[in-house]
Design goal:
Layout: E1 25-26, E2 41-42, E3 45-51, E4 57-65, E5 67-68, H1 69-76, E6 90-97, E7 104-105, E8 108-109, E9 112-117, E10 120-126, H2 134-142, E11 152-154, H3 163-166, E12 181-186, E13 190-195
Parallel strand pairs: 1-6
Antiparallel strand pairs: 2-5, 3-4, 3-11, 4-6, 7-8, 9-10, 9-12, 12-13
């Protein structure tokens, strides 16, 4: 156990001392600061469901769940989920759209979502291809707990919705850098733009 608690060269404790923190949520146009500990900043194209009364989905929004892949990779070696690799920023918005305003078949949104970096489209993904339906996701999240109005559930990264899956971006760089502008978009959900500083 002592070996699992040793500090690495960055001063972080590895192994048993893993923190699980809630990320800071930012809205449309708000900037995200690249954490000092990472050189592998990534976006994640997701759709969020916001829980309403009685545990039902009140609405959907775009979600960009930023990740520090190098930090996340080191944290995952202890067999637990990411902590500091995920707790610094999540962008949400620009609107909350009620389920009756969006095309839904078999509990899945029938939308095509995109990601652009600095105006260049990097990915286009069919939201209907997500593995579990929204009712299944809500039921899983509610198991042995109480969902409250305002709780936010993420879809998980849509297919091809992150640089980890896509590989290098336009100019040969693989990861996001300060000065980059990321926009995720989907019909009916709008555009969520986030500058990196």
């Amino acid at each position: 156990m002592e070996a699992a608690r040793r500090r690495d060269s960055s001063g972080l404790v590895r192994g048993a001392d893993v923190l699980l923190l809630q990320p800071g949520v930012c809205g449309p146009g708000e900037s995200v600061t690249r954490p000092q500990a990472t050189r592998e900043l990534d976006f994640e194209l997701e759709i969020a469901a916001v829980i309403g009364a009685g545990g039902a989905i009140a609405g959907f929004a775009l979600l960009n769940d930023f990740s520090a892949r190098d930090v996340q990779r080191a944290e995952m070696t202890v067999g637990l989920g990411p902590a500091k690799g995920k707790d610094f920023a999540t962008a949400l918005g620009p609107w909350l759209v009620t389920p009756d305003e969006l095309p839904v078949t078999d509990g899945r949104l029938q939308l095509e979502a995109t990601v652009t970096v600095n105006g260049t489209e990097l990915s286009r993904s069919d939201a209907a291809a997500q593995h579990f339906s929204w009712p299944e996701l809500v039921a899983h999240a509610a198991r042995d707990t109480h969902l409250r109005p305002g709780d936010v559930l993420g879809s998980g990264t849509l297919n091809g919705g992150c640089l980890l899956e896509l590989g290098p971006i336009v100019d040969g760089r693989r990861w996001l850098e300060p000065g980059d502008i990321i926009t995720i978009a989907a019909p009916g959900l709008g555009e969520l733009t986030t500058p990196i500083v």
